[in-house]
Amino acid sequence: MKFKVEELQTLFPDKINSKNTVSISTDSRTIASGQIFLPLSGQNFDGHDFINSVLDKTESISSFCEKRKLHKVNEKHKNNLILVESTLDSYHKLANFYRKKINPKVIVVTGSSGKTTVKDLIYTVLSEKYKTHKTEANYNNEFGVPKTILEMPEDTQVLVLELAMRAKGEIRYLSKTAEPDIAIITSVGTAHIGILGSVEEIIKAKCEILEHLNSKGLAILPNNSKLVEYSKSTWKGKSFIFDNTAESTQVINSTIVSKVASELGMSQAEIQSGLSSFK
């Protein structure tokens, strides 16, 4: 993805030392001329530790930097910084801007189980008709979702995102960036009960996926009475409730995907062709 400098200036006030168009890199090892460094931080790493080495390569490159970590940057490089409160929030801000710029139909999928298969099946079926981009590997968290969005080709018509959850508030954060048109919860299990404490709290966390759903969009939910009832407090739009007691997972997944595809205007023949080609 590339951004015009003036586009970035509408998002971030600091001067950007570049002309025309630039791209964003979160990897200090591969950053090239014309890219802006965006250092991310995790439990065992901090990209801010590499700002100096990145800016030593060429003075023409800027770097994002959290204000509280300004002390890590050499004085000679401080005029090349885009100062922000959070580089992760900035990453998501960039991703949301790009999502709106390309403006594909966005489908998000979460669930205690089955979300990866459903995501891949949706991608396969929709690719019969549309230029479709999806979450690869395990890029389904706070780092992977913006990465997936920003790697979306400019001619993408449908974006399919898998959203992972480790704690309350995470899906809300991811769905705010994605701004989905269709939101899917595949299942509600007890995988996170040690973190969230109860099935009721897991349901609340899963339903965060509905909070930023397009008001004219579609929620696809399993026939779980507690989840369906709670979803009504968050989502007032159109819903499709699928039977999650079917004898095979394949039938459940096909039901979900067929609804998504028909919602996007695909014919039964196109849907069947896509389902048949899935491996």
Description:
The protein is an alpha/beta fold and 279 residues long. The chain has 2 domains: 3-85, Udp-n-acetylmuramoylalanyl-d-glutamate--2,6- Diaminopimelate Ligase, Chain: A, domain 1; 98-277, Mur-like, catalytic domain (UDP-N-acetylmuramoyl-L-alanine:D-glutamate ligase). 37% of the residues lie in helices and 16% in strands. The protein contains 11 helices and 11 strands. The chain has helices at 5-11, 51-57, 87-102, 115-126, 144-150, 170-178, 193-196, 199-206, 225-231, 249-263, 268-277, and strands at 3-4, 21-25, 35-37, 63-66, 81-84, 105-110, 132-134, 158-162, 182-185, 218-222, 238-242. The protein has a 6-stranded parallel beta sheet with strand order 7-8-6-9-10-11, sandwiched between helices. Strands 1-2-3 form a 3-stranded mixed beta sheet. The longest helix has 16 residues, at 87-102. The two termini are 30 Å apart. The model has no long low-confidence stretch (mean pLDDT 94).
